[in-house]
Amino acid sequence: MATLCCLTVWPCFADDTNEVRLLGDIDDGSLAIPVHIILLYDEEGGKISPEDELTLPFSTKQTCGACHNYEIIKKGWHFNAIDPNVSAGRKAQPWIFVDAQTVTQIPLSYRKFEGVYHPGKLGISPWKFTELFGRQMPGGGPGELDTDDYDEIMRQSVSGKLEINCLSCHNADHGQDQTEYASQVALQNFRWAATAACEFASVKGSAKDMSETWDYMMPDVLDDPDKVPPTVKFNKNVFDNKNKVLFDIVRKVPVKRCYFCHSNKILAEKTSEKWMADEDVHLSAGLSCVDCHRNGLDHNIVRGYENEAKKSSNPLAKTSTCESCHTTGRLGAPVPEHLGIPVVHFTKLTCTACHSGPAPVEKAPGLKTSRAHALGTHSVNKSDEALPHITTTVLAEQDGKIAPHNLIWPAFWGSMKEEQVAPIAINIVKPLTAKVISKKSLPPSGDWPEVTSEQIKKILTLLTSELEEGVPVYICGGKLYQIDKDKLKAEEHEAAKPYLWPIAHNVRSAAQSLGAKSCGDCHSTDSAFFFGSVAVDSPLVADKGVVKQMFEFQGLDQFYTKAFAWSFMFRPWFKIVTLCSCSIISVVLLLYGLKALACITKILAGKD
Questions:
Q1: Strands 95-99 and 104-108
Q2: How many CA atoms lie within 13 A of 154 on its CB side?
Q3: Is a pLDDT exceeding 80 seen at residue 142?
């Protein structure tokens, strides 16, 4: 018995407290789902009871952390973007800051992806970043960082920190409401968000309305009695006689939980409605997201792209790619034969180029995503013109292969020094653009205002006096604008290039893949694969209607691409001529063969 107790307690006394495995972290091999009837703890570690005089929100860090090592979990992919030592891996969807009046649309990320900018460069602190984008973050990361700004220190004491919300993914109860979670974040109710989103509690009031001196431990002490402070109300019948609560926790995260942050809406006439769009073929076959995107306690989730194993420590990274599953039959994956497809396709294209995302069309459509457009929240703008403007499917080069991508054209004000462009803080830009671009000019749809070159020039002139160093520039429509000899000059620049990130979903069936009908799906003079148009997004009136063709994103020469496509028009005739030539040659060879046989017969018969 003593030995058993020692074995049970031993993990709690490891040397490195960050690597301690707690009770819920040690797998005993059972496939059954543990029943989570547990106590609730507030952020100070105090037990919560329905009889408490002051009702506080529960803390996931304290409540879940009683059995699971929170410090290990926070190293996971969804939470570790703020860690500069974590490998960013392949490019991923950025967070996109938009502001129509400052004509800004800029990809942001704490990860070091090429083409994105650190939020701090735009003057967005981790606390502000959480307020802007925490609606579709599972907490943690920037939501738990301490701010250095004095005013924000006071605000953070009111709002609390946005802890990792384990329930966002692992709560299978139908009452888990992520829309409510998003609303609470918008109200700066960070410490109350997880409680408000669960099925057995409600929160009213707003931390945003509270003064910097308000104390959540003394909620009735108010500077303005007309304001409603954040208050919690638990359904008392969910507590048992030991003050414990039942959570419907599952290891295998339901697809509906992933959808809140990972949904897309294609802005095309035939696919804009949910009932007209097909689900990913893997989901239709009965798989779930986490069948492929797996992780352990460290939440180092498999992303599933080719060569991920070289950058990830997850042991399943090597066996969770398209190729690995569809060559081994893992999870019932069919093994493709690819009859008649030249081998060169597998060295020039990714699997997703033919099988994933919306099929390429003549004019690449727009796209709305959960993270970019707050889909699924009460504040969502349902207009198709709402910023940011994302384009899909763009077939572009990726690590030496062509793959499908989403694309966004950056638009922002910057300072250029030695050809390097850095964004100017939005609080510097906003009052200057307000002098030139009126709020009345902002379309109610959330689209760009119509901006002229003269207005850009005026704002750049105003910015000159604000910058201590560097030259003020404006990036938009794939160009860099600056004032040169009192004229607005436009030129190509690395900072003005579009940001593209590869897509893998939704996966289409083999019969719906490119090339399933004929080579002409890609190799024709009007094929969208090479010659589809991609609109250049820009607020400038002069840029309206400017497009680029798909081959420009693939690093291909226009003449070669066109000539190669033309060759396919004559290939059927070439095949016919070849078959006819072979037939004639076969007949000639047959005739000579018969003559030779006749000669041999005569010789054998003894004739001259």
A1: antiparallel
A2: 7
A3: yes
595 located within any domain: yes
Measured in degrees and rounded to the nearest 5, phi and psi for residue 249 equal: -90, 135
In a domain, residue 579? The reply is: yes
Calculate the CA dihedral of residues 490, 492, 496, 500 and round it to 10 degrees. 140
Closest by CA position to 25, among listed 294, 289, 299: 299
Where do the DSSP E strands lie in 371-459? 390-398, 401-408, 412-417, 420-423
Task: Look up residue 391 and give its DSSP letter.
Answer: E
Q: Are 443 and 451 in contact (CB under 8 A)?
A: no
Contact 405, 502 (CB under 8 A): yes
Before 350, cis peptide (omega within 30)?
no
Who's near 276: CB < 8 A, 6+ residues apart? 270
Q: Which residues contact 162 (CB under 8 A, 6 or more apart)?
A: 130, 134, 137, 139, 140, 143, 144, 185, 190, 191, 193
Q: Terminus-to-terminus CA distance in the chain, angstroms?
A: 109
Domain span including residue 583: 572-608
Q: Does residue 593 form part of some domain? A: yes
pLDDT digits (tens, 9 = 90+) for 229-277: 999 999 989 999 999 999 999 999 999 999 999 999 999 866 667 777 7
Query: Could you count the other beta carbons within 10 Å of the beta carbon of residue 290?
Result: 19
| Residues whose CB falls within 8 Å of the CB of residue 484, separated by 6 or more in sequence, listed in order | none
For residue 501, the cross-strand partners are 406
> Structure pTM?
0.90
Is residue 218 one of the residues assigned to a domain?
Answer: no
Q: Which long-range contacts (CB under 8 A, 24 or more apart) does 58-63 make?
A: 58/194, 58/195, 59/163, 59/191, 60/139, 60/163, 60/164, 60/165, 60/166, 60/167, 60/194, 61/163, 61/164, 63/38, 63/39
Please tell me the total count of domains within the chain: 1
Average pLDDT, the chain: 91
What tens digit of pLDDT does each residue of 334-350 get?
A: 999 888 888 999 999 99
The closest alpha carbon to 498, from 20, 17, 96, 176, belongs to 96
CA-angle at 312, arms to 307 and 315, nearest 5°: 95
